[in-house]
Specification:
The structure holds 2 protein chains of 2 kinds. Chain A is an alpha/beta fold. In chain A, 25% of the residues lie in helices and 28% in strands. In chain A, helix 1 packs parallel to helix 7. The radius of gyration of chain A is 22 Å and the shape is globular. Chain B has 2 helices and 5 strands, in the order E-E-H-E-H-E-E. The chains are: A alpha/beta, B alpha+beta.
Chain lengths: 409, 107
C-alpha cells in the first residue's frame, strides 16, 4: 500500500499528517516540502524573528525526529511537478514517481510580484518563507549601517507588520499604498484610520493613492522607488506586500477544479475523489455557492484536520467563524468573522485607550468583531458567532452589558 | 539549559533539555511532544499550548499578562488555577526540573 502523500510541509501539511495518525491511520504517510527547511512557524517571520528576538531553531514546527517518531516520512527540498489522478501517482521534478492511495494538496500561496520595470533589483523582496525573511534581515542590516530608508509597497498586514518591525529597529519607513486607505479589503475605514495613526505616531510616513512606476537601482542594488507622479522615494530595501496567489497550477494541470485556488468543499474535498486540499492554496465553496479564500493559520489547521478526516472517509466540515490576528507594535488585532458586507458597526470600549472592539452587523445580526488589545472580546466573539448568537448593536456598544450572559441562555 | 518534563495526555513523561530563552511551547512542538499544538507559533493568539504547571512551583513564574489571561479564558480543556500558556513561559536555569502536565485536548 503506497499510503497517503501530502504535497506541502507548511502549517496545513504538517497538521494534516499528524491528524491522519491521530485518526488512527497506520499506513505510510509521505510529507513533501519544496523548501530546504524542516517545517517551521511562519507567523513570527514578520515580527519577532525579523526583529532578531528569535533564532532559527525556535521557529521549528517539528524536527525530523519528531515526525519520524510518528512514522511520517518527511522529504524536504523536493518539488512535485505533475499529478496523475488516474494512475494515482505524483511525478517529482527529478523525474521519480510516487504512488498514492490518497493525495493531499497543501501547496500554499506565492506573493504577487511587483510588475514594474526594475523590480528584479537586489533588495526588492516579498516575505513568505524563512529564506525571504533572512534576505530581508540582511537588507535591514544594510539599511541600518548606511542610514537608508525602507519602502513598503502595499499597506496590508505583511507590509504593516514589517513596517512596525523596521521602526522598532530605528529605520525610516515609508508605506506606499495604492488605495486611499490601509487594509481596505479587510478593515472598515474607522480601523484603517486608527492603524494609519498608530503607524504615523511611530514615525511611519504614508503615501496613499500611490502608483509605483519603476524601481531604480545602482549596480543591481535597489536605490529608490519612483511613483507615477514623479516622486522619488530613496530605499535600501523595498518590501512588496501586494497580496498572494494560491499555488493551484499543479492541481489545475491535473484536471482538478480551480478558481483562483483549489476548490474544496467544507470537508476539504476537491473535485477529484481521493484528492483533498488544505490551507492557503484552497478556495472553499460555501453553502450559498460563493468561493471563500482565506490565508490564515486557522484555515490551514482546520482544513488540515478536515482533509485528514476526508482521506479516512469521515466528514469533519470546517464551519467555524474565520479568525485571524496581526501584531503591530504593542497592539494585537484579532479578527473574528468577516466584516465585508457589514452595513453598521459599533465600538465597544474607547478607541483612544488602545483597547477596544468593533462589532459589525449585517441586517441587524452580528457578523464579525475586530478587537485591538481586547483578547476577551475576541474569544467571546468567536463563541457568539459559532453559536449564531447576536447581541443588539446597543448591547455590543455598552461595555457594562455582559455579552457572555447571552451565551448562557 | 534547564530540563523540563512534560506529562503527555497519555501519562507518558517526556523530559527535554531546553536552551535558555526558548519558551516551553517551542521545545514541545519542535520535539513532537503530544498534547501541545502551538498553532500561532508563540504569538499568544490561539490558546492551543495550554499546560498545567506544578502548583508548588507556580509562584516561580512571572505572572500571566493581560493577553495570556484573555487566552486562558478560552482554553479547550478545563482551566485550573495552575493553567498557563506554555508559549509565555521562558526556559531558564531557575526552572530546572519543572514539570508541566498537558491537558487532554487543545482544540
Amino acid at each position: 500500500m503506497p499510503g497517503f502523500v501530502i504535497i506541502g510541509a507548511g502549517q496545513a501539511g504538517v497538521h494534516l499528517s499528524e491528524s491522519l495518525r491521530a485518526g488512527g491511520y497506520d499506513g505510510a504517510i509521505t510529507l513533501l516540502g519544496d523548501e530546504a527547511h524542516t517545517p517551521y512557524h511562519r507567523p513570527p517571520l514578520s515580527k519577532a524573528w525579523l526583529a532578531g528576538e528569535l533564532d532559527e531553531a525556535q521557529l521549528t514546527m517539528r524536527t525530523p525526529t519528531a515526525l519520524e517518531r510518528k512514522n511520517i516520512t518527511l522529504r524536504t527540498g523536493v518539488k512535485a511537478s505533475a499529478i496523475d489522478t488516474v494512475s494515482c501517482t505524483v511525478t517529482m521534478s527529478d523525474g521519480s514517481k510516487l504512488a498514492y492511495d490518497g493525495l493531499a494538496l497543501a501547496t500554499g500561496a506565492t506573493p504577487r510580484a511587483l510588475a514594474v520595470p526594475g523590480a528584479d533589483a537586489d533588495g526588492v523582496l516579498a516575505l513568505r518563507t524563512l529564506d525571504d525573511a533572512a534576505a530581508i534581515v540582511r537588507h535591514l542590516d544594510n539599511c541600518a549601517d548606511r542610514d537608508l530608508p525602507v519602502v513598503v509597497i502595499g499597506g496590508g498586514f505583511i507590509g504593516l507588520e514589517v513596517a512596525a518591525t523596521a521602526r522598532k529597529l530605528g529605520l525610516a519607513v515609508t508605506v506606499l499604498e495604492a488605495a486611499p486607505r490601509l487594509l481596505g479589503r479587510v478593515l472598515v475605514p474607522l480601523l484603517s484610520d486608527w492603524y494609519a495613526k498608530l503607524h504615523a505616531d511611530h514615525g511611519v510616513e504614508f503615501v496613499f493613492n500611490a502608483q509605483v512606476s519603476s524601481i531604480v537601482s545602482t549596480q543591481g542594488q535597489v536605490a529608490a522607488v519612483l511613483a507615477a507622479d514623479g516622486r522619488r522615494f530613496p530605499a535600501g530595501l523595498v518590501i512588496v506586500g501586494i497580496g498572494v496567489t494560491a499555488n493551484d497550477s499543479l492541481a489545475r494541470a491535473a484536471g482538478i477544479d480551480c478558481d483562483r485556488g483549489i476548490i474544496v468543499d467544507a470537508c476539504a474535498r476537491t473535485s477529484v475523489p481521493g484528492v483533498v486540499a488544505a490551507g492557503d492554496c484552497t478556495a472553499r465553496r460555501l453553502s450559498d455557492g460563493s468561493l471563500l479564500r482565506l490565508e490564515s493559520v486557522q484555515n490551514a489547521t482546520e482544513q488540515g484536520r478536515s482533509a485528514a478526516a476526508a482521506l479516512l472517509n469521515q466528514e469533519r466540515p470546517f464551519v467555524a467563524a474565520p479568525w485571524f490576528w496581526s501584531d503591530q507594535y504593542d497592539k494585537k488585532l484579532q479578527m473574528a468573522g468577516l466584516s465585508a458586507g457589514a452595513e453598521h458597526w459599533v465600538v465597544r470600549g474607547a478607541m483612544a485607550s488602545g483597547s477596544f472592539s468593533v462589532f459589525h452587523f449585517h441586517a441587524g445580526r452580528l457578523i464579525a468583531v475586530d478587537s485591538v488589545n481586547a483578547g476577551k472580546d475576541h474569544l467571546l466573539a468567536r463563541k457568539l458567532l459559532d453559536a449564531s448568537v447576536s447581541p443588539t448593536p446597543a448591547q455590543a456598544e455598552d461595555s457594562t452589558f455582559d455579552l457572555a450572559g447571552l451565551l448562557a441562555n | 539549559m534547564p530540563n523540563i518534563t512534560y506529562i503527555e495526555p497519555s501519562g507518558e513523561a517526556v523530559t527535554l533539555n531546553l536552551p535558555a530563552g526558548w519558551n516551553l511551547m517551542q521545545g514541545a512542538t519542535a520535539n513532537g511532544v503530544d498534547g501541545i499544538l502551538g498553532e500561532c507559533g508563540g504569538s499568544c493568539a490561539c490558546a492551543t499550548c495550554h499546560c498545567y504547571v506544578d502548583p508548588l512551583r507556580l509562584g516561580e513564574l512571572p505572572p500571566p499578562s493581560e493577553g495570556e489571561l484573555a487566552m486562558l479564558a478560552n482554553v479547550a480543556s478545563e482551566r485550573r488555577s495552575n493553567s498557563r500558556l506554555s508559549c509565555q513561559i521562558k526556559a531558564s536555569d531557575a526552572l530546572e526540573g519543572l514539570v508541566v502536565t498537558l491537558p487532554p485536548t487543545q482544540e
